[in-house]
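Record 1 of the preview.
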Amino acid sequence: MFRNCITLVCNIGYIDKAAFVAHQLLAQTDRNFDVVICTDDISTDQSRNVPKDAILRQIDIEETIVNLPQNERLKHYTYWRLPAIQSLSDDYDRILYLDTDIFVVGDGISALFDIDMQGLGIAAVRDIHQRHRPNRKVQEFATLGMLNAPYFNAGVLLIDAAMWRKTSAFDYILKLAKQSPDALLCHDQSLLNIHFYQNWLELSPLWNWQNSSRVNLIGEFLSPYFVHFVGATKPWNSPDGSLPLKYHSDFARYFDQSPPPTQRPKLHAKFLLKNFWYFRRTQKYLARFSDPLSTVKHVKGNISPMMGENREVNSP
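->
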């Protein structure tokens, strides 16, 4: 057992997607982490696709989480990462959470566990909506009367387990969910951003390259570690040419399936112009990070401003 872990959290219907990501992670060289798939029920035989070196772990789902706001695409399962991180924090020093709609591209992931967290409990990547417009208004903060601030995507999260426990992050997040359900516009991502408001470490976007029609061509010329298929288009449900074929074929190959028929990629003028338009903005954003392991520290105020607490945090 390693002192670090990468965890994927899902209901049993997505366990095959988690298994594919786990398979990619286990192929990493110089691996210094366990791969743990957390779900609410590990008794089903759907787990047969899970690699033998991955760990299946059953988690208890809080009743509070089941009753939190959800929509047609994002059910209450999206909140499960919270009790999963809480459970794993007893056994590991650092926890890297990944969404199941991630494709592992780069080797050398182990180095991320060694970065200096600078006394903060969480490190993440700026959300794509603020990548090109850093001052873009965050609706969750505005709803709660908070000043605008950097906002991260919750698809890739590096957690310092000791700090997570020391600050009782899980308990405060559950209290916050009860206090302000109207602010949970992006569900658990909203919760995490409100709780860690201006108290988080920003990672290079290469650790969570959020794929969209605006920048998916740009990403193919970079060297991201993780490609994250935000939105409804995924490698397993997009045979229309909106994603490169390699993402479909690698996923299908793992399950001994034939890749779905894929139309010619949509290289129409609008697609190319969007990528061209955002190229310089992406270049400027990437320049903030001298290398893939450099970080930007966001610290101001309390760890959980909605709780009315005055707990100490490290100053920048």
